[in-house]
Amino acid sequence: MRVMSVAIGIVCMALSIVSEVSADQGDAVQGKVAYTQYCASCHGNTGKGDGPAAASLSPKPRDLTDKDYMATLEDSYLTDIINKGGAAVGKSALMPPWSAVLKKEDLQNVIAYIRGLGH
Ligand code: HEC
User: Fold this and answer.
1) Residue 115: CB partners within 8 Å, gap ≥ 6?
2) Is 115 in the pocket of ligand 1 (CB under 6 A)?
3) Quick check: 15 and 36 in contact, CB under 8 A?
4) Considering only CA atoms, which residue is closest to atom 36 of ligand 1?
5) Closest ligand 1 atom, CA of 38?
6) 33 vs 112: CA distance, rounded Å
7) pLDDT tens-digit profile of 14-41?
8) What three-state secondary structure class fits 46?
9) Residue 77 and residue 89 in contact, taking contact as beta carbons nearer than 8 Å
10) Does residue 107 line the site of ligand 1, with CB under 6 A?
């Protein structure tokens, strides 16, 4: 019986990990494709916030390659702002919502890509 409950415990843990959106599960290579298509115009090809459309933005997107800054942002926050847009999290409405465009998998991939930008 003991072995059984340990096994159930492990399955539950695995399930709870899978249900969370986390950068660890995303595929950064796929994420780069979506990022380049949807995000680079504002955030810049390298994530520094210097895309062609950023010139007219105020505030401008922050530098996503700044590892110390990015470390302060939770995955749940990144998920929210990307899904629901800046206005939904008290940031600029010029950051559009992407939930209609990015599937959950795409979102994980994009977050994994963004997380990997800082050096
Ligand atoms: C039309 C321009 C535009 C596009 C396209 C855009 N963003 Fe943004 N994004 C912004 C702006 C402006 C901000 C800054 C909001 C603020 O600081 O108030 C922002 C902020 C963010 C932030 C929060 C960073 C922080 O400092 O808190 C993330 C993460 C982000 N964008 C991801 C994305 C992703 C991923 C995509 C593509 C799916 C994307 N953005 C597409 C304009 C854009």
Assistant:
1) 23, 28, 70
2) no
3) no
4) 39
5) 37
6) 12
7) 554 444 565 678 999 999 999 999 999 9
8) coil
9) yes
10) no
| H helix runs in 1-119, sequence order | 2-19, 28-38, 40-43, 67-71, 75-84, 104-115
pTM strictly above 0.90:
no
Range of the domain at 68: 2-115
Q: What's the DSSP call for residue 69?
A: H
The atom of ligand 1 lying closest to the CA of 64 is 24
CB 60 within 8 A of CB 49: yes
CATH of the domain at 99: 1.10.760.10
Kindly give the parts of the chain with pLDDT less than 70: 1-23, 119
What CA–CA distance (Å, rounded) separates 69 from 63? Answer: 8
Counting ligand 1 atoms within 8 A of each CB, the residue from 45, 74, 95 with the most, and so the one to mutate, is: 95
Q: How many domains does the chain have?
A: 1
Q: Among 43, 64, 91, 117, which residue has the most ligand 1 atoms within 8 Å of its CB, making it the best to mutate?
A: 43
